[in-house]
Structure of Cobalt-zinc-cadmium efflux system outer membrane protein:
Amino acid sequence: MSPLKSGRSRLAIGCAVVAMATAAIGPAWADPVPSYEKLLERIGLTPGALEAEALVDAAEARARQAGVRPNPELSLEAENALGTGPFSGYGNAETTLSVSQDLELWGRRGARVGVAQAEGRTSLLRRDLATLDAAGRLALAYAEAEAADRRFVLAQEALDLTIADARALMILVEEGREPLFRGIQAQSEAAAARAALDEAEAERDAAFARLTAVAMLPNPATSIENSLLDREPPAVVPTSTASPEVRVAEAERDAAESRIEVERVRARPDVRVSVGVRRYEAEDATALTFGVSMPLPLFDRNRGNYDAAQAEFRAADARVMAARQTTQADLAGAEARLRSASSRVWATDAGVTAAEEAYRLSRIGFEAGRISQLELSSSRAALIAARNAAVDARLARVRAEVDLALLQGRAPFGTSL
């Protein structure tokens, strides 16, 4: 057998092997993933949402506890007993049973309740923020899984096109219209397309695994029927309400301001009153006792804690200003990215249409002998790149919508929570 024939045989065998490997690959998915809206109904079961809900319950419990009055104190005292001389034994003892109560003057309990309620409002806003963040992460994981699935399909199609071009080239090589090394190049391109398909399959499996974890699905995610990539985001409407991040920062500032009042009240003395009964064993008599006690504020006037509370309020106020500035800039950027991504989707769709027509004409020209194999490969690569760019543009649009929705305090794509 001549070297030329041997090389052609090896080329034919290589292309056949690649074709058989391609035919063996097919989607093994059976159960489609529920729609994004269905998954969103279960957003409260995600770990982040459960944690935020538990923290709300804890804050509500602390608010209830803050409104409870302190318990009275019961004391029993014995004097002049079990000593020496006339005080030996218990005959001359004086026994006092008394009850004392902290009066919580100066608005102490009201300040404590105010702080607990402010912290409760903060926890509610944090829960809402955690729910919105979980909805955004779910939308992103959903879109990334769908994009990975589409890239896998595109990789399959790219391999099919490469194999079809290699077969057409082999006919020309057998007819002597193309040199043998062109066939070898086609075989190399087919091998590269097969490797790209393997990579796309791995990326698809990883993306579906992430979606399974984020959505907390009982069974592994398989395929997606309800597209999120093709969904048009709602029209960008300016909002006058503050973003969730700003509202949380404002609630934290209000709680910090409430702590100033608590520390101011703590600087005043605790007043306690007591009433009791005293028993005189020697006289076989009893009498009532009354008392008022309070610490003398000679050394500790709580100035350090009061100044610290004021400093923490100033820090919280600075965080509010920073959050407002950052949110304003992020909101403008997210709106611009969403408009740009939407325009890019239209542009890439037009690019795919043009690339498909260019490849079709190149294939016709190649089979007629008017177009070289290099030009055919170039048009095929342009088609593959255009199709992947269309997927990337849609994924970028979803990401922009997720960012904008979080800043506007809503679920992505106008869905309700």
DSSP finds eight helices and six strands in the chain. The CA atoms of residues 85 and 92 lie 11 Å apart. The beta strands are 32-33, 73-79, 94-102, 223-224, 272-280, 285-293. The first strand starts at residue 32 and ends at 33.
